[in-house]
Fold:
Amino acid sequence: MRYNFKNLNVTVIGLARSGFSCALLLKRLGAKVNAVDSGSSEKLTENRNKLLKEGIKAQIGAKEIDFIAGSDIVVISPGVSEDKDFIKLAKVKKIPVISEVELGFQNCRAPVIAVTGTNGKTTVTTLIGEILKANGKNAFVCGNIGVPFCNYAFNATENDFISLEASSFQLEKIEEFKPRISLILNLTPDHLDRYKSVEDYLEAKKRIYLNQDKNDWLILNYADSALKRLEKETKARVMFFNKPGEDFGDENLNPNQRAVMAVSSLLNLDREISLKVLRDFKGIAHRMEFVRLLSGVEFINDSKATNIDSTTWALERIRKPAIMIAGGRDKGSDFPSLRSLVKAKVKSMIVIGEAGNRIFDAFHRDIEVIKSDSLEGAINRAYLKAQSGDCVLFSPMCKSFDMFRDYEDRGDKFKLFVNSLEEKK
Structure:
């Protein structure tokens, strides 16, 4: 349902980026806001203090369940799962629980182009924003990409566009969310620590078109059989990309670029301008990002590789022998499925984080695998082992939350440590 947030008692769970943004928007809407986070860190403390200065109640290091009972509505951050006690209590008390994406959508006049899928979301979301801007449109790029939807929702007009990266977690708690155009790029096993099966994971992704109708568009990957079948389920009009015989003006486009050109076609944007944007695009931070060439060794930051499919993509594209750094919080991934590729591409592997032992067990029979207690230590070990002509590939295959705030924090730390290294003597 649509909410008039004025004078509602709204509890915001989480004080990181999305929760912080939600609290500020709700304050602007006239809600009585109470923001809470059970964690404690320098960043959370900073965000809490900023909210307090805005007259918003905010607490860290507190139990979320203690704040649910008096709420009219609860807004949660993407990482909050259904099995949390405060979510169960909200259900018992019939208190609505929505995501930051839902809050943003209910207070946004601009048409939304929403992108989901296992891999490529950030690249496609970014490129959609870039082709819109190149064609003279005003576009805001946000969502799971790192900038919350709520940052832009209130000020965006009917003449603007929102290019939104939507994760399965965010889609779990939508109600009215209805993109003008939605895209599902691909589907491979992921987040199996949260979902019981790939089928459950797909069900969460499918919510992106839950409220779409004949006035909206759903763009699907024709080459993905699980997604191709969705044409029969949606009420939206369907357009396929990655389809034999399609003509977007360049036969060398990869699947992500083809998805972007499908959007360009639907919006009647200039084809040549859009193609130029794709050709000139240099990539995004933390995705196969070149960091430094030192003593003949190339350092590559692929911190955004939070699953084995992303790391597969990275390994298939490197052309130099690799010293690979991997590990983090396990998603229940099938690490052994990469054995042949790792054996072919990787000289040595250094593992960190909670998943280190599982990754060690998966690969130590084929290549040298070394355990490290820290990312900095892993980088130092990798640099010592690497020879001129090698690359050090940081492609974790795991979530970052065991050791870092998020994948961006993890990637930034990697770049910081790498840039502190000195030439070998």
Notes: The chain has a mean pLDDT of 93. Residues 289-419 form a domain with the Protein-Tyrosine Phosphatase; Chain A fold (CATH 3.90.190.20).
